[in-house]
Design a protein that fits this description.
2 domains; 6-stranded mixed sheet; single chain; 43% strand; 2 helices
């Protein structure tokens, strides 16, 4: 062997000797099989409530090795094995094939270290509890082989009525999701749209409270049809889904007063299809209830609408007093608007709106609006919002941003609270080419303009044609605006400031109104009780 080769040879041997010695001295890579020594972040994982055949959120379990030794967990598996409706991911590992997600062998865990187990489920209630509307499904994760430690898994599964568009086959054999066709421009001819959904069949036009309803895409009500929704019904919408009431159609969502203020047992509730608590107040989970131009005789009473993009979108029919009659209704957590009217006609009484990404109530492109005993608040906290709680205008814009005027024939607000965490919370935004008629009577409004940014006759608060007995910038003292609790205390500046108005003699909670009445949808009361 040549000298330089010998030198490299001895260097290689020396390096290997050091590596071998170093690795043999370290304990990092020595794992001993161990059972019964693990600690867990929880002894039961509740995956909350899911609808049948809809996947759950991902839940986590943290597993701790509290010993001073590296351990090898011989087996981590679901107790029901391959038959389990749960699936696992262990620190990025997908499991032993063919039992992926169900069983894991020889899982290493370093001394004083921890790992995450991610848990999901999708359950078909008919496979486990046929003819039941809900079922408690359980399993367990086992750690070890001979005397395994266990962490229980629990999920409440609800059955539901599913409404979804059909999958259609194209002439070339490809498939597409069914889209809606209806008369968009009022010329009597159906127009194709890209709105995924389908029209409800005649036997689907009555929603009951026997099971929840889960809607994928838009469920549409056809010309001459009425969607009747019973008290206590629950409607859940998947992402990008909603209700569409087309020309000549109607919706009657008439709930009743509830005996339980927490469960709202007789209230009709519209919300998203994620039932886990972390989704309970997330805006924008679904689209809207769209009352299309030409729809008529639409009523909402004792309803709650939450977590949509737009709670109710009502188009056209500004001379039709039956376009939208809405009473005793709460609308929360809309990522854009609570109620958006466009050249429409709205009669509203005892309504509460809060936490909207734009305006809670927007009366746009003119129309007619009569609002009595409303609490129109906006305590949006997710990010900056451009618009106030209440927006009034008399125009829209075309694709070139040119204004198209339409008269605001009337916008009358009586015994209302209009407040929020922005300033001002009322924006009057007219164009001169159309009438702009509005009136606030016996209202409490947040509008503070120290820099005189707003001027003109519509902002003359001394003009009783527009402002009659209106109080400004006095905090109503809501119970907890961030949690949509907008009840007012007995000493609220809104207490006893109302006038006789409206058709109801009770507040939104069914309590007889005092005389003089309190402003907003709620009677003032002792909030400390």
């Amino acid at each position: 062997m040549r000298p330089h080769s010998m030198k490299h040879y001895f260097y290689f041997l020396a390096t290997c000797s050091v590596l071998i010695f170093w690795s043999s001295c370290r304990e990092d890579f020595n794992f001993s099989s161990s059972e019964g020594t693990l600690r867990f972040s929880k002894d039961t994982v509740y995956l909350d409530t899911v609808f049948t055949n809809i996947g759950s959120s991902t839940y986590t379990l943290k597993v701790y090795n509290t010993t001073d030794s590296n351990i090898l967990i011989p087996k981590i598996k679901l107790q029901q094995g391959q038959n389990s409706n749960y699936r696992l991911n262990v620190d990025g590992l997908t499991g032993d094939l063919p039992l992926g997600g169900k069983e894991f062998s020889n899982v290493e865990l370093l001394a004083k270290d921890s790992m995450y187990i991610f848990i999901e489920t999708t359950i078909d209630i008919q496979n486990i509890a046929a003819n039941q509307t809900q079922f408690l499904y359980t399993d367990a994760i086992e750690f070890g082989s001979t005397n395994p430690q266990k962490v229980e898994l629990v999920t409440l599964v609800k059955d539901a009525v599913f409404i979804y568009p059909h999958q259609l086959t194209n002439p070339d054999g490809s498939t597409r999701i069914e889209t809606l066709s209806f008369d968009i421009d009022g010329d009597g001819i159906e127009d194709d749209t890209n709105i995924q959904g389908r029209f409800l069949d005649d036997d689907e036009l009555h929603f009951t409270n026997e099971k929840p309803y889960v809607v994928y895409g838009y469920a549409a009500v056809g010309d001459g049809k009425i969607l009747e929704i019973d008290p206590g019904s629950r409607l859940h919408f998947h992402a990008n889904s909603g209700l569409l009431v087309t020309s000549g159609a109607s919706i009657h969502a008439n709930g009743q007063p509830s005996s339980d203020a927490e469960t709202l047992d007789n209230e009709i509730i519209f919300e998203g299809d994620r039932l886990e608590p972390q989704f309970s107040d997330v805006p924008g989970q679904w689209q809207t209830i769209w009352l299309y131009n030409g729809s008529t005789n639409n009523t909402f009473n004792h309803t709650t609408i939450k977590n949509s993009t737009v709670g109710i979108l009502t188009d056209g029919n500004q001379d039709d007093p039956s376009k939208l009659d809405i009473k005793n209704t709460q609308i929360y957590n809309s990522s854009a608007f609570g109620i958006l009217g466009r050249a429409s006609h709205i009669l509203a009484e005892n309504i509460v709106i809060n936490k909207s990404g734009q305006s809670s109530f927007a009366a746009t492109f003119g129309g007619r609006y009569t609002v009595t005993h409303a609490t129109i608040a906006n305590y949006w906290t997710n990010s900056f919002r451009q618009f106030p709680a209440l927006l009034l205008n008399n125009f829209t814009t075309d694709s070139d941003q040119n204004s198209i005027p339409n008269p605001l024939l009337s916008a009358n607000f009586t015994n209302c609270i209009i407040y929020g965490n922005n300033n001002p919370e009322v924006l009057l935004d007219p164009v001169a080419e159309a009438d702009f008629n509005f009136n606030f009577k016996n209202c409490l409004i947040y509008f503070d303009d120290p820099n005189n940014r707003f001027s003109g006759p519509f902002y003359n608060f001394d003009d009783t044609n527009y402002y009659d007995n209106v109080r400004f910038n006095l905090d109503p003292g809501f119970l907890n605006s961030s949690e949509n609790k907008l009840q007012i205390p007995l000493n609220s500046p809104a207490s006893g400031q109302g006038t006789t108005a409206g058709t109801l003699n009770t507040d939104i909670e069914g309590n007889t109104r005092p005389n003089p009445s309190d402003l907003g949808a709620y009677n003032a009361k002792d909030l400390d009780q």
